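Extended Data, panel c. Modelled sequence:
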Amino acid sequence: MKIATYNVNSVKARLEGVLTWFREAQPDVACLQEIKCETPAFPRAAFEDLGYNCAVLGQKTYNGVALLSKHPMEDIQDGLPGDDADVQARYVEATVTPKGARAVRVGALYLPNGNPPNTEKFAYKLAWMERLYARAKVLLATEEAFALCGDYNVIPTAEDVWDEKAMAEDALARPESRRAFRKLLHLGLTDAFRNCDPRGHQYTFWDYQAGAYQKGHGFRIDHILLSPQAADRLTGAGIDAHVRAWEKPSDHVPVWCTLKP
């Protein structure tokens, strides 16, 4: 079972490239972020033609997440619990049950950027991460396999960025953000990619500005965190960095992992 996450940076603007990746990678489940369209405007038919069921939580112009699965999805939940006043479209969750295989609960998330630090945006980021922590605790209590996949907007360590000093004051690398990410890991969650590939400086994002991709000025902010029951089934993980060189790419690339049935 292949689970992937991909910040597409506008699904309609980059649809052809996204569909090309789907045909190439053949994920069983894919979590998309920054679809940047309202739910009814999501190009559902294009993905259904490839055999995917779609659970979408959209928002005009900004944010938006989608959970796509080749297998049936049950108990779909829109939105991250913990703040009824939060109207930003950043989380959708469902149980995926492949035929003849064990079910996996999958959460597709787009964590707030938080810049600039010391503003309401950064406070919102940290509060959102605390809500995600609470949700992870609830899911862990079920003792079932789950994966929390998406653009976390957190650079976990100095090994995950091209220049630690250059990003030191950015919300993605602030100590508060890193502590909140480690707090998730300390619950017993596994960073799927890091578990399979210990090499440093493997990136999932390169800015459009100043030739960042060509210079290798990237960082790793897209992650798949697995519960112990899912991590026990982990067989591989990777970053499809080549997608960043395609025509009209997103500034992010897909990250994936594979689980035994």
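The radius of gyration is 17 Å. This feature is highlighted in the accompanying rendering.
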